[in-house]
Amino acid sequence: MSVSTSVDLKLYPAYAFETMIEELSTALLRLGMRFEPSDAGRVLQGEGEVGRVVRWQPPEAISIEWHGADWEPTKVSSMELRFEPIVGGTRVTLENPEWAKFVGDEAQELAGWFASEAAAPLLAAMAPRRFGDWFTDRKARRPSGRQSRDTYRDPIYHRPNFKVILGALNLQPHDYLVEVGCGGGAFLHDALKSGCRAAAIDHSSEMVKVASEANREAIAQHRLEIREGDASLLPFASGVFTCAVMTGVFGFIADPLRALSEIRRVLAPGG
């Protein structure tokens, strides 16, 4: 008995393959699994290997030899991701044709596994609140994906905010700025033109990467450091910054008072 799922994308197969592999890698990382996509790729959970790429054929397919149960390492199945051209796009299908052997009984137990681990999470993910949370995270609260990366590299709708904030801060070369929720690093790029130093955090690993790329020269000059972090627990020493900034962030913070207390903590007297 096989287990499979599919989705139709309005993307050409080559682009669908590239996009799906990128998204799958990011999603697995959030679940504690590291996917190394290549013709010699692996899937790691902690230090253990749970999958190995045995077929790498862009843009048509990828197959992974899968160890579904670490207590029975000799039981191996195959996971196949296929990309089939359809009218107007690509059908992406993920299939494990031998999954039933991991659950024993080929009917009732497989039905139980599918209902609890596949169908129910899918239904929950499609419910309005859960989907709304995902969409908010994807676009703004914890931006991820290619579209968000492109948006936050040059957030044109935030530019008026940047101008007002920079005018209020009146940064000088002796200043040391901290930005909480730096997004793609566009504000940092403008702020650093003053000659100041800066540090920043964002809780989106993808935004940290984008911001670092946008400000790689300042990082190389040791004028800037960017970390993945939480506004409620800033990874900086007390009393070191002369100024602090957040823009387009406050509404997404779970505990605003804690975040403001942390900002107060890391600011020097008079900051």
Walkthrough of the structure:
- With 271 residues, this protein is an alpha/beta fold.
- It has two domains: 124 residues, 2-Layer Sandwich (Alpha-D-Glucose-1,6-Bisphosphate, Chain A, domain 4), CATH 3.30.530.20; 116 residues, Vaccinia Virus protein VP39 (Rossmann fold).
- The chain has ten helices and eleven strands.
- The strands form two sheets. Strands 1-7-6-5-4-3-2 form a seven-stranded antiparallel beta sheet, covered by helices on one side. It has a four-stranded parallel beta sheet with strand order 10-9-8-11.
- It is elongated, with a radius of gyration of 23 Å.
List keywords for this structure.
single chain, 10 helices, 4-stranded parallel β-sheet, Alpha-D-Glucose-1,6-Bisphosphate, Chain A, domain 4, Rossmann fold, 7-stranded antiparallel β-sheet, 11 strands, 39% helix, 271 residues, alpha/beta, 2 domains
